[in-house]
Amino acid sequence: xxxxxxxxxxxxxxxxxxxxxxxxxxxxxxxxxxxxxxxxxxxxxxxxxxxxxxxxxxxxxxxxxxxxxxxxxxxxxxxxxxxxxxxxxxxxxxxxxxxxxxxxxxxxxxxxxxxxxxxxxxxxxxxxxxxxxxxxxxxxxxxxxxxxxxxxxxxxxxxxxxxxxxxxxxxxxxxxxxxxxxxxxxxxxxxxxxxxxxxxxxxxxxxxxxxxxxxxxxxxxxxxxxxxxxxxxxxxxxxxxxxxxxxxxxxxxxxxxxxxxxxxxxxxxxxxxxxxxxxxxxxxxxxxxxxxxxxxxxxxxxxxxxxxxxxxxxxxxxxxxxxxxxxxxxxxxxxxxxxxxxxxxxxxxxxxxxxxxxxxxxxxxxxxxxxxxxxx
Amino acid sequence: xxxxxxxxxxxxxxxxxxxxxxxxxxxxxxxxxxxxxxxxxxxxxxxxxxxxxxxxxxxxxxxxxxxxxxxxxxxxxxxxxxxxxxxxxxxxxxxxxxxxxxxxxxxxxxxxxxxxxxxxxxxxxxxxxxxxxxxxxxxxxxxxxxxxxxxxxxxxxxxxxxxxxxxxxxxxxxxxxxxxxxxxxxxxxxxxxxxxxxxxxxxxxxxxxxxxxxxxxxxxxxxxxxxxxxxxxxxxxxxxxxxxxxxxxxxxxxxxxxxxxxxxxxxxxxxxxxxxxxxxxxxxxxxxxxxxxxxxxxxxxxxxxxxxxxxxxxxxxxxxxxxxxxxxxxxxxxxxxxxxxxxxxxxxxxxxxxxxxxxxxxxxxxxxxxxxxxxxxxxxxxxxxxxxxxxxxxxxxxxxxxxxxxxxxxxxxxxxxxxxxxxxxxx
Lengths: 376, 427
Description:
The complex is a heterodimer of chains A (about 375) and B (about 425).
Chain A: E1 20-25, E2 33-40, E3 45-50, E4 53-58, E5 62-64, E6 74-78, E7 85-88, H1 93-96, H2 109-141, H3 144-162, H4 175-188, E8 199-203, E9 210-213, E10 217-221, H5 222-227, H6 231-246, H7 249-268, H8 274-307, H9 313-327, H10 332-337, H11 340-351, H12 365-372
Parallel strand pairs in A: 8-10
Antiparallel strand pairs in A: 1-2, 1-7, 2-3, 3-4, 5-6, 6-7, 9-10
Chain B: H1 2-6, H2 21-28, E1 38-42, H3 46-62, H4 68-82, E2 83-85, E3 88-92, H5 96-129, H6 133-160, E4 162-164, E5 167-171, H7 175-191, H8 197-210, E6 212-214, E7 217-221, H9 229-252, H10 257-287, E8 289-291, E9 294-298, H11 302-334, H12 339-344, H13 346-351, H14 354-390, E10 392-395, H15 416-420
Antiparallel strand pairs in B: 1-2, 1-10, 2-3, 3-4, 4-5, 5-6, 6-7, 7-8, 8-9, 9-10
């Protein structure tokens, strides 16, 4: 094409005049117009000329369309005629256009701000008000067998997740130990209005932890039994978990996550770290609820321990062991465990001991030994 | 009722060979045909898109996902501008901010729905059925219409923001019509054990194509669904043989040399069949489309597409696996399960504190996503686009110069629903 009309280019910072070729689309029809280009220095404009017509684009109004695959040519647009396009391989034109990279905002920023606020409020309202309210109400309405099924499903997930072999973590069911544990469970629940049966499982895993599941299922890990130095310490933890069962915390928790996971998934769905962020957000939200739930379960445990003549301070002793166990490790766990709340909870447990309190021995030495060997 | 509605335009203009042979005959005798024929080409370079995807991926991670609207926009600009007919590139004019706005609108609307429905289903499922399976099933089924709705709306948005030679494309409103037709065709496909899959492919493609326009020139899908049936046999036959084999194995309990060999052959055949169908369906459907008075020809090669899939996903997969190794080590060690393994390498566990491990774990977790996305862009998406664009031709385009502009489709929610529901439409 350049053989038809010669291109004269003066190379330099300010080429005085430019004759170049291009293709022009006026944005009204799909006709591709072959055009010549030159710069009108007086008008500070690019003159786009074709057979039987021309148009002037002010240099200051010319913009480059970004992210084009073909870097040997320019795709140019005009602020005033947003539909028109000019394609040329004469890249020197770019030197003369001062506002090539100024972006045109097509969307009203206030609208975005308004909707962003609305979205944040909606999600916050749902996660912090709506979901907990509904979860609380539904938890009380849920029939016992429904709760049991929910608990069984969760227990199944946990057993599967913690076990490498894929068959699921095994329960510890040594008979003598089981009997002691069953007796203890009965003694811990005198006249409590429980939402159904209470079962305490021991899972064969060395994690030092225990938790409550929906439907009155409490899970104690072997690691916890091994770390406990007295039966009172172990019982204190179980009493704490019973506190959760009585207030139906696990059921609420399960329903809360069912409600909020989907909503958070909307926010973080389709990008690389989405799943990770989703998990962290879930944890943060749960931490907010768990603090009050933990404190309530603690005071429940204090009362029940006093009833069976065990010092509430045993709960504090057990927490102390958590601190010793994980506090030495450098790592994520220690950050959570050595949280100031843990110290407060230990102090609260010690403060809960009534004056002139006379503790009695909970188990015979032989019974304690049987319980310790429940996983053998 | 639905059937009538769907087949209302179903004038039987079936050409079972699927190619527009009548068109090509006309052209081979017409010396002026080349004037109106615009060959397709793809001018994008592989490493540019690799670096774009990699860089934008990093920005996305650093902005907790917010850059993804910009990433999508910028990659689309690049892909669109890579495709040219007769030297004229396509242009994508979507705005990242309108995507953000659309996403926010979708979040506000969907959040209430999703939370209430999920909670109610979870409760009902455990109270009535003592299990979570009904809840998952129902919430999946409940989201399917929304998902189809979002897919159509996203297509409408993308077409409304696509221009060629300065002229906008458009897709007419009709998302709910698409939803109920898609549900109907999916039901038929499921009820017929997949035999009617090509019927679904054809009618959904026709629904979308017949509502698409390039400026004042409407697109139209000609042909009938049976043109897709012959290529579909390559999927159907191995699938049926596979079912027969499974029944045979179940009955006899034999699963040895012959059976293993047969299942491998059937599996490869099935995989080949799926790609073959995908390519052939695209070819037959494209050749029976018209844009105003212009028509399209396309001649994609199954071998090339198959090679792109195998090499592209193979390369991306191997790279991902290499990056995955540190993640697995971290995952096991935080679960306390790797004690045994780390004891074998005390020097490693001594050097790497738990914090170090965490950092490496997170870095390789993100590295995995970044590399996967960048590599699949460079070795799968881009080569596929290049192949399809370079074997495509627009014919009889003499009338294109009278195609006029159409008004802007404001479409404020953009592809927000698709974004929120992860209908990820490729790019």
